[in-house]
Amino acid sequence: MKYSRLTKEQFEELHQEFINFLATQSITGDEWEDIKKNKPEAAEQELDVFSDLVWFGVLSKVEYLEHISPQQIHLFQCNEKSMRLIALKIDIEEVDFTTKEGFEWLRNNLLSDAIEFFNAKKEYSDDKHLDLFKMIQSGANITKGELFNYFADLIKG
């Protein structure tokens, strides 16, 4: 398996898609029940293949990722060959970007010398999707890029 197995909840959400996946392999509902009961390792394999297909589909559509921690914000624009990073960092322990108050502080103090801005570009490894998957596994969230674009415009201006 290249990525990770979907959770029970994710499988439940994708129930119809999984049925369609089994159908593409000419596996009926009864046959699937038989495979689960009598060939558990084959059933596990099917679950893994389906999970990888779902992850690949999701990762193929990722345009922006965000990773927000108490003192840092990392915003990524995921382009075809590389990703662009805009990062903000503060050294004020009382401010926590993961809280509403911390975000409010950021909004009110954007031009403060307490905030360091970083702007960088990074090439992907040989496997863009795996790079993105690892970032998500380490806490990044897929977003629509509003925050990234806000700061990109701010840096330009």
Sum up the structure in keywords:
7 helices, 157 residues, elongated, 49% helix, 22% strand
What does this structure look like?
This protein has a five-stranded antiparallel sheet with strand order 4-3-2-1-5, sandwiched between helices. It is elongated, with a radius of gyration of 21 Å. The longest helix has 21 residues. It has two domains: 53 residues; 93 residues, no CATH class. With 157 residues, the protein is α+β, with helices and mostly antiparallel strands. It is 49% helix and 22% strand. The protein is built from seven helices and five strands; from the N terminus they run ααααβββαβαβα. The model has no long low-confidence stretch (mean pLDDT 93).
